[in-house]
Design goal:
The complex is a heterodimer of chains A (161) and B (660). Chain A is mainly α and 161 residues long. Chain A is 63% helix and 0% strand. Classes of the chains: A mainly alpha (161), B alpha+beta (660).
Chain lengths: 161, 660
C-alpha cells in the first residue's frame, strides 16, 4: 500500500534536501572507503525504517557515516568499529541481529517450521500408508473372490446403479 | 449536500452489510431459499452505496471543498486533477474508504459470478463477507470518518504530501488493495466451507479464479510499489525489508502457496485441510498488514499510524476474524477426511515440497517482521532485523523453490519419473550453465551475480520445457502441426509457464544488480563522467514552474562511444505549501538496464552533487512481475477451469468425462 512508502517519505521530509553518501564524505583512500561502505550497509539508520545509514539521507545517518570513517581512519578494524557503535547505540543499530539467546527463536523458527512441516508430511504419509497397507495386504477370502468373480461377470452398468 | 449524501450512503451500506450477514446465514440454517437469495441483491446494492459514498468523497476532493477536514488536510486548490482524484486514498480515512470499496466490490463480484457455487455455501460465504464489510464500515463510521466537516472552513488546504504527488499513487494502492482484499473472497468461502462442514475437490475449483485474480493484482501492486520506491528515493533501492513492505509480501507468499496447494486439491483431492488453512492465512496476513500500517505498533515515524483507538479497533477486527476462522478450523479440521495418498515423486509431491518451502519462507518474513516488536514488548530489548537477516533465512528457503519449479512442472500427477524429468531439463540446465559462464566472462564478479543469472536463465528455459515437449513431441525436426498443438494446449499450461518464467526474469534483474556501477561526484559543466559503458555530461541547469512547485532541472547527455544515446533531466522539486523538497531521478532505460541519476544541490564552487548509477538489466525485476501476472491472467482465462463450465460439464454423464 502507499503507506509502505510513507516511512521514507516522512524521512525525506524531515531531512535536509540532500541524500545519502555525499561527495565530500568520501575518504581519499579507496580501500578504506570501501570498508566504510561495507560497514555502513549493515548499520541501521536509527531514525529510519530499516534503511541502512549508507542508503539514508537523514542527517543522523550522515553523522554516523562520518563517525564510521573517523574510526576507520583512527585505525580501528571492522569489528572494532561495530563494537564501538553497539556499545553506544545497542544492538538496535545492527541490521543483522546478533545470534544470542533472546534471538534464538528469531533465527531458528523459519527452519524449525520447515522441519516440523516435513515431519508432519512424513507422519501423514506413514499413517496413510499404514491405513492403505492394511486394506491392501489383507488377502481376499475364497468367499470374497467368488463373489468378486460373480460381480465381475455382471455388466458394469448394473454394478454402478 | 453531496457530502452528506455520501455519508448517509455509507451508513446505509453499513445497515445493508448487517442484513447481508444475518439473513442468508439464517436462511442457510432454516433451509429457506428466499432468505439465502437475499444475499445476492444486497451485496450488489451495498457495493453501489459504498461506490456512491466514495464518489461523493472524490467529488469533495476534486471540487476542493475545504469545509471537509479530510480535504483540508490532504489537498490544495492548485494540486493537479490526477492527484486530487488519487489523493483521496493518500490518507488514512480515504484509503480505508478504498479498502471498503474493494471489499464490497469483492462481495458483489462473488454474488454476481458464482452461480455454480452451491447455494448454501454461497449464502454462508456472502454472510461472512457481509460481516467483514460491517466490521470495516463500522471502523470508518466510528473512528475514521472522512466526511467530518470543519467550521469555519479555511480558505486553502495543506496540500498532499509531495512525495505522494506521483503517478505511482494513482496505480499502486488500488492494485495492492485489489490483491489484499481479493483474498477476502477466498477467506469467506473457506469460512463458509468450514461452517458447512463439507469440503471436497470442488472447493478448490471455486476458489481458483478468485485466488488467481487476487494473486495477479497483488503481484502487480507489489511490483509497482517497488518501482515507485526505486525511482522516488534517489538511490535506486527497490526493496528494504521494511515491515510495511513485508506486510505485502506475506499474503503474496501465502497466496502463492495457496495457488499450488489448490491445484493438488482439485486434481487429487489431497491437501484439503491445508488448502483451507492457507485460504484463511492469505487474508489473515492481509489484515495483519492493515493493522501494522495503521495501529502505530511499528517503531517508526509513520504518517498513517498514531491513533491508538484506531489501532485497538483494528486489532479487535483482527482477533474476531483470524481468531474466529482459526477456531472454526480447529473445530472442523479433525472431522475432514484427509483424502488421497500420493507418491513422493509426483507432481503433487513436488507441490507439497513447494508449499513447505513457501510456508517456511513466509514464516521467515513473518518472524523477521514481528520479532522486534515482540521482543521489545517482552523484555524491552530493541533489535533491528534488516536485509542481512532475510538474506540468510528467506534466501536459502526460497532458493530451492526456484531450482525445483521447472522440475515440478515436468513431473506427472500420481507417479512421476524423476530421471525422465531431469533428463528433459538437461537443455535448460545447459542453457543456465552457459549463461553463467558468459556472464562470468563478460561481467565477472561478484559470484552471486553470475550464479543467480545462470539460475534465472535455467528457470526461464525450464519453464517452457514442458510446453515445448507438448508442442514438439518428436523433437524440433518434426514441426508438423506444431502450431495447432500450441493452440490446443490449455491456457493454464501457458499460464504456469509464463508465471514461472516471470520469476526467472525477475531473478535475472535481481542478480544483475551485483554488476551495478555507482558514482558519487560533484559534477562540473563541460566534464564527462564514466558510468559503466556510458558517459554523462551536464549540459546546463534550468528552473521551471510547476502547478504547485518550483523545480531545478539538470540537463544531461548520455553518450556511448561518442554518440549521444539519450538525454535525461534529473530534477529537484520544491513544494511551496508544505515547504518540502523531492528529488526526481533522471532515468533512461537502455537494453533493459538503466542509467539513473539523482541530484542534490549545487555546492559553493558551482559543481552539482550527484549520484550516477548504471544498473544493468534492472528493469527486468519489474518486467518479470508483469510476466508473472500475465501468466496468472492467462491461467485465469482458461475456459475449461471456469466454474460455470465445470457445472455444465458435471451434468454430462460421468462416463463422458475422459481423463483430464
Amino acid at each position: 500500500m502507499k503507506a509502505r512508502l510513507f516511512a521514507f517519505f516522512t524521512l525525506l521530509a524531515l531531512s535536509a534536501p540532500a541524500f545519502a553518501v555525499q561527495p565530500d564524505e568520501i575518504l581519499p583512500d579507496a580501500k578504506l572507503e570501501q570498508r566504510a561502505r561495507n560497514i555502513s550497509a549493515n548499520l541501521r539508520c536509527l531514525v529510519c525504517q530499516n534503511q541502512s545509514i549508507d542508503d539514508s539521507d537523514a542527517s543522523l545517518a550522515k553523522d554516523l557515516r562520518l563517525l564510521v570513517r573517523e574510526r576507520l581512519k583512527a585505525g580501528d578494524s571492522d569489528p572494532q568499529v561495530k563494537e564501538f557503535l553497539v556499545a553506544r547505540y545497542g544492538n538496535f543499530i545492527l541490521l543483522k541481529p546478533p545470534f544470542e539467546w533472546d534471538t534464538l527463536l528469531l533465527w531458528l523458527s523459519p527452519f524449525a517450521i520447515l522441519g516440523l512441516g516435513a515431519a508432519a508430511v512424513f507422519a501423514a504419509r506413514r499413517k496413510g500408508q499404514d491405513a492403505q497397507g492394511d486394506k491392501a495386504v489383507a488377502p481376499l477370502s475364497e468367499e470374497e473372490s467368488a463373489r468378486l468373480k460373480s460381480l465381475l461377470g455382471q455388466s458394469p452398468d448394473e454394478g454402478q446403479a | 449536500m453531496i457530502v452528506e449524501l455520501g455519508h448517509y450512503a455509507l451508513a446505509l451500506a453499513f445497515a445493508l452489510s448487517i442484513m447481508q450477514t444475518v439473513l442468508p446465514f439464517w436462511g442457510a440454517r432454516a433451509h429457506e431459499a428466499r432468505l439465502m437469495a437475499v444475499a445476492r441483491p444486497v451485496a450488489l446494492t451495498q457495493f453501489a452505496f459504498v461506490a456512491l459514498s466514495y464518489a461523493a468523497l472524490t467529488y469533495a476532493h476534486v471540487a476542493s471543498d475545504f469545509s471537509l477536514a479530510n480535504v483540508v488536510e490532504n489537498s490544495h486548490s492548485t494540486k493537479p486533477l490526477i492527484y486530487k482524484i488519487s489523493g483521496v486514498w493518500g490518507n488514512h480515512e480515504g484509503s480505508m474508504m478504498l479498502w471498503v470499496l474493494i471489499l464490497t466490490l469483492s462481495g458483489a463480484a462473488m454474488a454476481a459470478f458464482s452461480r455454480a457455487i452451491p447455494p448454501r455455501l454461497l449464502a454462508d460465504a456472502l454472510s461472512v463477507q457481509g460481516l467483514l464489510c460491517a466490521a470495516f464500515l463500522m471502523f470508518i463510521l466510528l473512528t475514521s470518518n472522512p466526511f467530518a466537516r470543519l467550521s469555519p472552513a479555511p480558505i486553502e488546504g495543506a496540500d498532499l504530501n509531495p512525495i505522494l504527488q506521483d503517478p505511482g499513487l494513482a496505480i499502486h494502492p488500488p492494485l495492492l488493495y485489489l490483491g489484499y482484499v481479493g483474498f477476502s473472497i477466498v477467506f469467506s468461502l473457506a469460512a463458509a466451507a468450514l461452517i458447512g462442514g463439507r469440503i471436497d475437490a470442488a472447493f478448490a475449483r471455486f476458489i481458483r479464479p478468485w485466488t488467481l485474480a487476487a494473486w495477479c493484482f497483488l503481484t502487480l501492486g507489489i511490483a509497482m510499489g517497488s518501482y515507485w520506491a526505486y525511482y522516488t528515493l534517489g538511490w535506486g533501492g527497490f526493496w528494504f525489508w521494511d515491515p510495511v513492505e513485508n506486510a505485502s509480501l506475506l499474503p503474496w507468499l501465502a497466496g502463492t502457496a495457496l495457488l499450488h496447494s489448490a491445484a493438488v486439491m482439485e486434481k487429487r483431492e489431497a491437501l484439503k485441510i491445508w488448502t483451507i488453512f492457507l485460504a484463511i492465512l492469505a487474508f489473515s496476513l492481509s489484515l495483519l498488514g492493515t493493522f501494522l500500517v495503521r495501529s502505530g505498533v511499528l517503531t517508526s515515524v509513520h504518517a498513517f499510524a498514531s491513533d491508538p483507538q484506531r489501532g485497538l479497533f483494528i486489532l479487535g477486527i483482527l482477533v474476531l476474524f483470524i481468531g474466529g476462522a482459526l477456531f472454526l478450523f480447529m473445530m472442523r479440521a479433525s472431522s475432514l477426511k484427509q483424502g488421497g495418498l500420493f507418491a513422493p515423486i509426483s507432481r503433487e509431491g513436488a507441490l507439497v515440497l513447494n508449499n513447505l518451502l513457501l510456508t517456511a519462507s513466509c514464516a521467515a518474513v513473518f518472524v523477521g517482521t514481528l520479532y522486534p516488536l515482540a521482543l521489545e514488548a517482552f523484555n524491552g530489548d530493541k533489535i533491528s532485523v534488516g536485509a542481512p537477516f532475510f538474506n540468510l533465512t528467506f534466501g536459502p528457503l526460497i532458493a530451492p523453490v526456484l531450482l525445483l519449479a521447472p522440475l515440478g512442472q515436468l513431473l506427472s500427477w500420481k507417479r512421476g519419473d524423476l530421471l525422465g524429468a531431469a533428463h528433459r531439463l538437461f537443455f535448460a540446465a545447459v542453457c543456465g550453465l552457459a549463461a553463467m559462464l558468459v556472464f562470468a566472462a563478460i561481467n565477472g564478479a561478484p559470484v552471486v551475480a553470475f550464479i543467480g543469472a545462470g539460475v534465472a536463465v535455467y528457470l526461464i528455459v525450464g519453464a517452457f520445457t514442458e510446453i515445448f515437449g507438448r508442442i514438439f513431441p518428436s523433437g524440433l525436426g518434426a514441426p508438423k502441426n506444431a502450431f495447432y498443438r500450441a493452440k490446443g494446449l490449455p491456457l493454464s499450461a501457458w499460464g504456469t509457464a509464463f508465471a514461472h518464467a516471470g520469476l526467472g526474469v525477475t531473478l535475472l534483474g535481481l542478480a544483475a544488480t551485483g554488476w551495478g556501477v555507482e558514482k558519487i561526484v560533484a559534477m562540473k559543466q563541460g566534464q564527462t563522467y564514466d558510468v559503466g559503458p556510458y558517459q554523462l555530461e551536464v549540459l546546463g541547469l534550468t528552473s521551471e514552474q510547476g502547478p504547485n512547485y518550483n523545480e531545478t532541472l539538470a540537463h544531461m547527455s548520455v553518450r556511448r562511444d561518442g554518440q549521444i544515446v539519450a538525454l535525461i533531466q534529473p530534477a529537484k522539486r520544491f513544494f511551496k505549501t508544505r515547504r518540502m523538497a523531492t528529488t526526481q531521478a533522471g532515468i533512461v532505460t537502455l537494453n533493459f538496464g538503466q542509467i539513473y541519476v539523482s541530484i542534490a544541490d549545487q555546492n559553493e564552487s558551482g559543481a552539482l552533487d550527484a549520484r550516477l548509477y548504471w544498473k544493468p538489466l534492472v528493469s527486468l525485476i519489474w518486467v518479470g512481475a508483469l510476466v508473472m501476472a500475465f501468466g496468472g491472467g492467462l491461467s485465469l482465462s482458461d475456459r475449461r477451469l471456469r466454474v460455470g463450465v465445470a457445472r455444465r460439464a458435471a451434468k454430462i454423464p460421468a462416463g463422458a468425462q475422459g481423463a483430464s
